[in-house]
Design a protein that fits this description.
The protein is an alpha+beta fold and 222 residues long. The protein has two domains: 39-182, no CATH class; 190-215. Helices cover 36% and strands 25% of the residues. It contains five helices and ten strands. The chain has helices at residues 2-24, 59-64, 71-85, 118-123, 191-221, and strands at residues 39-45, 48-49, 54-57, 97-106, 129-134, 143-149, 152-155, 158-161, 166-171, 176-181. The strands form two sheets. Strands 2-1-5-9-8 form a five-stranded antiparallel beta sheet, with no helix packed on it. Strand 6 (143-149) and strand 7 form a beta hairpin. Helix 1 (2-24) packs antiparallel against helix 5. The longest helix has 31 residues, at 191-221. The radius of gyration is 24 Å and the shape is elongated.
Length: 222
């Protein structure tokens, strides 16, 4: 019986140690690695429609292109790996979930005039691009948009939830972009499982205490 109690205590300790790691892994929406990238509904820069000039690449697509990945795709996968293993943190306070992590780049093949210089124009100080993404978010969801550029995360200049599942954001740069939500009910998470884990730990701890009390009473009677 004592061996059983020791084993039970060891299990409780292991579960309690695993719980923080479990919570730390809850950074992404579970489907982030296999769902399609959000589509661009509209894009404007320098008074020009640039919707056809942008390409949005998902993690799944970047993985499929791993053998011949572009620099942007390599960066996306590298950033995802660092966020996933905890070596990189987003400059956000409080609880948040990364709903989408994608790469947004210019595609000259899709532009009417490959020589129009959109990329060079955006790199100039103070110039921005406005892009509307279809994220499928609820109209009450607050979305934070961050862009990874030159090793740093920068917040979008402005983000508006349009109430129809799309958001419009003004960006100084494009590249690897993280769409984060604070309302985890909008994106199915494993937080409930984490809560259940703690319930299991408490129940097992209570059971161990009861067993110890019963054994002590038996020993006292002897």
């Amino acid at each position: 019986m004592r061996k059983t109690i020791c084993l039970l205590c060891a299990v409780i300790m292991c579960l309690s140690l695993a719980s923080p790691a479990f919570a730390a892994a809850n950074t992404f929406v579970p489907s982030i690695t296999y769902k399609d990238a959000p589509t661009i509904e509209d894009s404007e820069m320098n008074d020009q429609n640039t919707s056809g000039c942008l390409v949005v690449t998902s993690i799944e697509t970047a993985r499929k292109n791993a053998a011949n990945a572009t620099e942007a795709e390599k960066e996306l996968l590298d950033v995802y790996a660092q966020l996933d293993n905890g070596t990189m943190k987003l400059p956000l306070s409080g609880d948040y979930v990364i709903r989408e992590l994608v790469s947004v780049t210019f595609d000259q093949l899709g532009c009417i005039d490959p020589s129009h210089g959109h990329e060079e124009w955006l790199e100039e100080e103070g110039n921005c691009i406005t892009v509307s993404f279809n994220l499928g978010v609820d109209k009450h969801t607050h979305v934070t948009v961050l862009v990874y550029k030159d090793g740093q995360w920068t917040a979008a200049e402005d983000v508006t939830n349009n109430g129809d599942g799309t958001i419009t954001c003004t960006l100084e740069d494009i590249g690897t972009i993280a769409f984060c939500v604070e309302d985890i009910s909008d994106a199915p998470q494993t937080g409930d499982a984490g809560f259940l884990l703690w319930v299991v730990i408490l129940v097992m701890a209570a059971a161990a205490v009861v067993v110890l009390l019963v054994l002590r009473r038996k020993e006292n009677k002897k």
